[in-house]
Write a structure and sequence with these properties.
The chain is mainly alpha-helical and 65 residues long. The chain is built from 1 helix and no strands. It is elongated and about 35 Å long. It starts with 53 loop residues before the first helix and ends with a helix.
Length: 65
């Protein structure tokens, strides 16, 4: 598998990653909603892929159900 950024052909460190570690690893901590560049919400118990926007949180919850 390769990086989720268009036209990036860098390999992933593992299949659990979405972005390469050489250039785009900072995107792991950016909201997964297209067009949103806010940082993911922080919680010690939950792994977030969305920012603290209520709609984005609901989208994440729906995705996980």
């Amino acid at each position: 598998p390769c990086c989720a950024v268009a036209h990036c052909t860098n390999p992933l460190e593992s299949t659990r990653h979405h972005f390469c570690s050489t250039t785009h690893c900072h995107l792991e901590f950016t909201c997964a909603v297209d067009g949103c560049d806010r940082p993911v919400a922080q919680s010690p118990q939950i792994v977030h892929k969305a920012c603290d926007d209520a709609l984005h949180q609901r989208l994440q919850k729906l995705h996980l159900e």
